[in-house]
Structure formats: C-alpha cells, structure tokens
C-alpha cells in the first residue's frame, strides 16, 4: 500500500511511530519555579560524539503551560535537564510519570521514584537509573505543526550505576524501547558486528 500524508492514512491507527522504531526512552528530569518534574519522551536519540549531544522532541501542549508541556517550559526557565535511561523493571514507574498532572505536580513523588541531585547542574535525576545524562540546552528549534519543538542538548556529565559496568563496558539490565501504538519492547539480546575495514 501507499498513501500520501496530505490525504491522511487509511489505517485504523497512524503507523508512523511504529515504522520508526524501536526508539530509546528519555525519562527527563527538570526543575523550575513550580518545582520538579519527570516525564518520558520517545522521540529521542544521541546525535553527536564530540562533544556528546542529544535531541528530543516535545510534541504536545498542556492548557496550563502556554503552548507546550511541563518539561519544555522548565527547560526554558533553567536551561538544563537530566535524561535518565529506562530499563524494563522501571516500566510501571515510567508509565505513571506520564500522567497529566497539573503544572507544579511532582511526578517523582506521584510515580514513587527516588530522586537524586545531579552533580554539574541544578536538576533532579532518577537515583536508580542505569545511566543519567546531565544536559545543557543548546537550542530549541520549532518544528512544523502546533506545539512541536526539537530540543538539542549538550551532555555535560554522565552517571552510570556501578552494577551496569562489566569489564569497562556499559551493560545495563534489559532496556526498554518504544515502538508504536501502545507497544514497547525489551532489549534482551545483544550481539557484536564488526564493521568493514575503514568503516
């Protein structure tokens, strides 16, 4: 089948996010004048090594946040945020933190997530995350469509849980990935693949 986006899709549900999958989940911690916030985002990835950089997209708005969501509103205030990676044993807390609490509601408390402080920025992080990236905002880029914004950040500090290191390599428990619809995946099989010479 083929369809043009200008004509919409003929399927029961939009397949776009299911096609571009799996995607890692950024469990983002922020702090603003109303308090602390924690929310998952699946339009997320690493985009550069030196310096290390990430991006995520905020694609909706809350009526109490002036055209965006709590996360982006607080990044605009502080210029910093934490990205906590998610393993399968954290799925219930991660899902609970996506509840649409009023601005100022603390999703750490709501989801029963233990909070810790970042080291180089004034932002909370998930204390038992396998890894956390401390990030500074580089730029916010408006995207096509209402309330769609791309957030580009520089990683300025990294936390790795001690039990997630094996012979000097990052080796966390099964990671959680986002598919489409209401689907998730657990990354339980990992294999190495050598690149061609010069690749």
Key terms for this structure?
199 residues; mainly beta; Pnp Oxidase, Chain A; seven-stranded antiparallel β-sheet; three-stranded antiparallel β-sheet; 4 helices; 14 strands; 12% helix
- What is the β-strand count? 14
Overall mean pLDDT:
96
What percent of residues adopt helix (DSSP H or I)? 10-25%
Neighbour order of strands in the largest sheet: 3-2-6-9-10-5-4
> Uncertain runs with pLDDT below 50, 5 residues or more?
none
Structural summary, described in words:
There is one protein chain. By secondary structure, the protein is mainly beta. The protein has one domain: Pnp Oxidase, Chain A. It has 4 helices and 14 strands. It has helices spanning 16-19, 70-78, 91-96, 107-111; strands at 23-24, 26-32, 35-41, 44-48, 53-58, 80-84, 115-117, 124-126, 131-142, 149-160, 165-166, 169-170, 175-178, 184-187. A 7-stranded antiparallel β-sheet has the order 3-2-6-9-10-5-4, covered by helices on one side. β13 (175-178) and β14 form a beta hairpin. The protein is globular and about 50 Å long. It starts with 15 loop residues before the first helix and ends in a 12-residue tail after the last strand.
């Amino acid at each position: 089948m083929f369809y043009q986006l200008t004509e919409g899709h003929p399927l029961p549900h939009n397949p776009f996010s299911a096609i571009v999958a799996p995607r890692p989940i950024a469990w983002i911690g922020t702090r603003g004048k109303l308090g602390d916030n924690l929310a998952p985002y699946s339009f997320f990835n690493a985009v550069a090594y030196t310096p290390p950089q990430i991006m995520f997209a905020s694609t909706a708005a809350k009526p109490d946040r002036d055209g965006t969501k709590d996360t982006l509103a607080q990044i605009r205030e502080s210029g910093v945020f934490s990205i906590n990676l998610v393993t399968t044993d954290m799925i219930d807390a991660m899902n609970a933190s996506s509840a649409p609490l009023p601005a100022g509601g603390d999703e750490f408390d709501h989801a029963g997530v233990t909070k810790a402080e970042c080291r180089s920025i004034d932002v909370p992080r998930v204390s038992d995350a396998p890894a956390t990236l401390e990030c500074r905002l580089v730029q916010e880029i408006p995207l096509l469509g209402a309330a769609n914004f791309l957030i580009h950040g520089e990683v300025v500090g990294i936390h790795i849980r001690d039990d997630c290191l094996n012979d000097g390599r990052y080796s966390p428990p099964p990671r959680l990935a986002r598919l489409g619809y209401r689907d998730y995946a657990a990354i339980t099989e990992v294999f190495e693949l050598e690149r061609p010479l010069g690749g």
